[in-house]
Write a structure and sequence with these properties.
By secondary structure, the protein is α+β, with helices and mostly antiparallel strands. The protein has a single domain (about 5-220), classed as Nucleoside Triphosphate Pyrophosphohydrolase. The protein contains six helices and ten strands. It has helices spanning about 10-15, 65-80, 115-130, 160, 170-180, 185-225, and strands spanning about 5, 20-30, 30-35, 35-40, 40-50, 55, 55-60, 90-95, 105-115, 140-145. The strands form two sheets. Strands 1, 2, 5, 6, 7, 8, 9 and 10 form an eight-stranded mixed β-sheet that branches. The radius of gyration is 20 Å and the shape is globular. The termini are far apart. The structure holds adenosine-5-diphosphoribose and magnesium ion (MG).
């Protein structure tokens, strides 16, 4: 369980907490990347409106609906199809740590649902063609690469994916689910995280390098005469 973890019953007993439910949809696959690298599992996440990676789902009001009903409602908006999520798909609840007193009362509930490969493909198609949130709150579904590529510095795949930015505790939810469901081994995950840290440091350097010319450009455009 991620830090801040609590049981579903404890979470629902909190009088003034807000609740959000998210789900990891996944399947097995026999497909191979480039005909040789086993993809093993299709795991869905999404690029959110705020530029962060997260899981489909959203805010639920337990006084009006069960957590699972609320989550299914959110999935219809974000994925454009009915995906019944059941109590048995529940994995963890977590109090989201935050400096603001309002957000500190947010509890996220996390579910995992196994599907057939063809159902995952249907979800991806519906998310683009039928979801009301497409292009607004959801900018696109993404598959999580679970393999690590050896070429090009050895970080392609899971290490690079993990080095991106995630909403709240979504990265911990992903790591926890991958281990619990045995979609990757603890050794694979450890290696991928160590490589992700190196990639992150490199990204930080290249952002620093990009900042200097951007600052220079900003100064020049402010100095430029304004023609009306
Ligand atoms: N871990 C922690 N917090 C998370 C996670 C996560 N894995 N995923 C989402 N959150 C937070 C979000 O930052 C948000 O505050 O949970 C809350 C609800 O999740 P969303 O999926 O963003 O909610 P949704 O109901 O889909 O609404 C989208 O519309 O009203 C606005 O700002 C509101 O973020 C909300 C957005
Ligand atoms: Mg959402």
């Amino acid at each position: 369980m991620t830090s801040g973890g609590l049981s579903k019953a404890e979470a629902l007993a909190c009088p003034d907490c807000r609740h959000a439910c998210h789900v990891m949809l996944y399947s097995d696959t026999k497909a191979r990347l480039f005909g040789r690298i086993p993809i093993r599992h299709l795991v869905l996440m999404q690029m959110r409106f705020d530029g962060l990676l997260g899981f489909p789902g959203g805010l639920v009001d337990p006084s009006k609906e069960t957590l699972e009903e609320g989550l299914s409602r959110e999935l219809l908006e974000e994925l454009g199809m009915e995906i019944p999520v059941l109590a048995e798909d529940y994995l963890t609840s977590c109090r989201v740590p935050s400096s603001s007193s309002l957000s500190s009362r947010l509890i996220t509930h996390f579910y995992v649902k196994k599907m057939e490969e063809r159902q995952i493909e249907e979800v991806e198609k519906a998310a683009v063609s039928a979801a009301t949130d497409h292009g607004q709150e959801v900018l696109g579904m993404v598959r999580v690469p679970l393999y690590t590529m050896r070429g090009g510095g050895g970080g392609g795949g899971l290490p690079s994916f993990l080095s991106h930015s995630f909403i709240g505790t979504a990265r911990s939810q992903l790591l926890d689910a991958l281990l619990r469901l045995r979609l990757v081994t603890p050794q694979e995950l450890h290696r991928a995280l160590a490589r992700a840290l190196e990639i992150h440091a490199h990204t930080s350097e290249s952002l620093q390098a990009a900042l200097a010319p951007a600052e220079e450009q900003g100064k020049r455009s402010c100095d430029a005469p304004v023609h009306v």
